[in-house]
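**C-alpha cells**
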Amino acid sequence: MENYTTDDSNIETIDISAVHKKARKIDMSLFLKLSDECEIISKIYKITEQTLTRAIDQMTETIGLGSVDFKLGSSPKLVNLLMCSRGNIPPLPITGSDGDYSYTIIAKVSNNGPMPEISAAIYRTASSGPMNGFWVFDFKLMDWSIVNYANHLGYTQKQFDIIQNKPNSNEALLLKVSSTGKKIMPDFAFEELCEKNEEILNLYKKTDLFVSLNFDQEGQEAFLAPLKSDAADGLSVTFHNGFYELNAVAHEQVIETILRTESEDEICSILTDMLDRKFYPDSAAIVPLSANSLIDVRENGSYEYIGDKATMPAEEEQFFQKYLTYYKK
C-alpha cells in the first residue's frame, strides 16, 4: 500500500508573472554621452586658455604694452555663449588699461586643427570715452591709426546716437542686429527698414528670452527663429500683408506656412508654448506641425513629438514626412 504525504513539501510555486515578463532595457546612455562631450570640451578650453595666454602676452609685448594687465571678459552673456558653444568659441573680449588709455583685444579662436589658431585685433580708446579718441593698431605699420568710432562699428553718426541715447528703442534693436560692421547703411534706407519690420521687432521684445532675431540674406526682412543654443533649424515667424506667419523651415527655406494670424497676442502665446522650454543638447530642428504641436528633431535623426494629443495625428505625420525630404537634403 502506497503512502501519500499531506504537506506541501513536494509542491513548487511558479510565479506566472515572472514567466511572461518581457526582458527590458533601461537606457541612461545620454548621461554617458554628455559626460564624454563635457570631457572633450574641457580639454578644448584648457588648451585654448594656455594658447591664448601665450599669444596675447607675445602680442602686447611686441606693441609696447607689456606692463598693462589684461583680463578676459566674464559677462553673463559671454559665459552663457561659452557654456552653449560645445567648443566653438565666440569672439573673446580681453581688456586692460594704463590710466591714459583703455585697450580692448578681440580674439578669435579656431579649433579646427590639432592646436587652436589665434587671430586678434587691438583697439585703444581715450579714458574719457571713444568719441574723444579711438585707434586701431596697424600691425603692418606697427603704429596706432585713428578711426571714426561710429563708422568703425558700422553706423552713421545719427545711428550711433540712437544706440547711445535710445538703447531700448526698435531702432537701436534693429541697428544691433542688421549692422555687419563693414558696410554702413544710409540713414534713409535704415528708416525704411525700421518701418518695414516694426511688427516683428515688437513681437521680439515680448519673446526675446526664447527666440532670436534674424535677417534674410538680402538684409531686408526680419524674422524670428529659435535660439541658436536650442536648435539651428525648423521654425520661423515672419510678417506679410498684415499677418504673422508661423513657418516650418529646413535649411533656411520655408517648407510650409503652418498658421497665419493678425493677432500679435495669439502668435506670442504660440511661441511661448512652443519654445519657452528646455530642449536637448543635441536638438537640431524644432519643427511646428500646428498651433499646438511640434517635432524636436535630434542630430542623430531621431525625433520626439510634443503636442496636446497622445500620438501624432495622421495629417501631421504626413506633413512631417514631407518635411524630412527637405531636411535630409
